[in-house]
Amino acid sequence: MDIVQSYRRTFLGPLWITLNLIIFAIAMTFVYGALFAMPTREYAAYIVCGMMLWLWISALLTEVGQTFMNYAHFLKGSLIDKSMFIWTAAFRQVIIFAHHLLVYIALILLGVITPTIYTLFAFPAVAVLFLMSIPIIALAAILFARYRDLPRLVSSIIVVLMLITPIFWEPSMMTGWRTLLIDYNPIYYLIEFVRRPLLGQQPDPLIVTVVLGMTLVLWLAGSLLYRRYERYVIFWI
């Protein structure tokens, strides 16, 4: 309902979500594909799969942190369990990701991406990303409600995070001490965790281990923080 209402009375409706990715991927492929001297078909697949994950992750860092504030009128006027809004925000990202999958399917039909047996790993990878989204939303929603400068800080650095993460460029392009931007960048691991299977590549055991460890830590931290502070949210919003 949130997605449908946001595009009400538009010609394409929620398909604008898909069209936005198409326009961005075409522009980036023509410009950065030439700058990096990469084959157009290969770079288009790399960009689309990377952006599908980045849009999900960036929403977790910015948009969903406003969950409790966006639904403040519900929280103040009813006894609805706050966790329902956390799950709502998580499922919203799944719906948006499904719209982006239309572009991915189109690339397969056009022969740009060739599925392999490793592509099947994308299903559990997306499921893990969804499960990880729950504690991230819980943490962000509480912290954003309590510290109102935090959303502005995150909005200021989100573009920087996008540029230093291998979304438009490949990790092999980084050398020397600058590889630390990859090795200690959790967003890189999240993106590669799903992008490799989508591209038909074998999952990296190190990346899988790191992501599963991050998921466990986030669930522990998210559960503890949520149980401790969710009762105070009503006073902060």
Overview of the structural elements:
The chain has 237 residues and is mainly α. The chain has one domain. It is built from twelve helices and no strands. Helix 7 runs antiparallel to helix 10 (186-198) and helix 10 crosses helix 11 (205-229). The longest helix is centred in the middle third of the chain and has 28 residues, at 82-109. The radius of gyration is 19 Å and the shape is globular. 29% of the residues are buried. The mean pLDDT is 85.
**Tertiary shape:** globular
Low-confidence stretches: none
N-to-C series of helices and strands:
HHHHHHHHHHHH
Number of E-state strands? 0
DSSP helical segment count: 12
Helix content: over 70%
Structural class: mainly alpha
Summarize the main sheet: none
Calculate Rg over CA atoms.
19 Å
Strand content: under 5%
Supply the number of structural domains.
Answer: 1
State the distance separating the first and last CA atoms: 23 Å
The quaternary state of the protein chains shown equals single chain
Arithmetic mean of pLDDT: 85
Question: How would you describe this structure in keywords?
Answer:
237 residues, mainly alpha, 73% helix
Helix and strand arrangement:
Blueprint: H1 2-6, H2 15-35, H3 40-61, H4 67-70, H5 72-77, H6 82-109, H7 122-146, H8 149-164, H9 180-183, H10 186-198, H11 205-229, H12 233-236
Helix pairs in contact: 2-3, 2-6, 3-6, 3-10, 6-7, 7-10, 7-11, 10-11
Task: Provide a short characterization of the protein structure.
The protein contains twelve helices and no strands. By secondary structure, it is mainly α.
